[in-house]
Design goal:
Number of domains: 2
Distance between the termini: 64 Å
Number of helices: 3
Helix content: 25-40%
Radius of gyration: 24 Å
Order of helices and strands: HHHEEEE
Strand order of the largest sheet: 1-2-3-4
Number of strands: 4
Amino acid sequence: MFSGIRLFRAVAVAAALGLLASATPASAANFLEKNFWLSGPNYHGDLPSCENSWALGEIQRKFSSKEGRFWNSSLSITDFERVKETAYSPWANQTIPRRFCSAVALVSDGVRRPIHYSIAEDLGEIGAIWGVEWCVVGLDRNWAYNPACRVAKP
């Protein structure tokens, strides 16, 4: 039987050997992986418009949820004004297609605030639907898109 110290040493040696064994250099994809499993992105670029009710509804729902869960606030977005597209896939080819939009959000506290959002292909639920990322200027409390939601723009 092992004593406590001997058992600890045996576990430590086994863990070190396991780490060394898993630290093998990455190798290139083999023939089968290249031809069948790593086919690359198959984007269509078919994104909803900035005024799409699904996208705006997602923003409203997620905004209310975030405010209530994390900031103990009852703020919600009641409506959108001056919705416009600011860019469509402004980056290199073969990147995830995104439509960048800006609007003015009417927030339940009576203040109109600028909002910047993007609709991206395959970034929603398990990569099966569009994804929406957004930032309301002045209400980015965790500074995810700081300063003043600049990171949410193209």
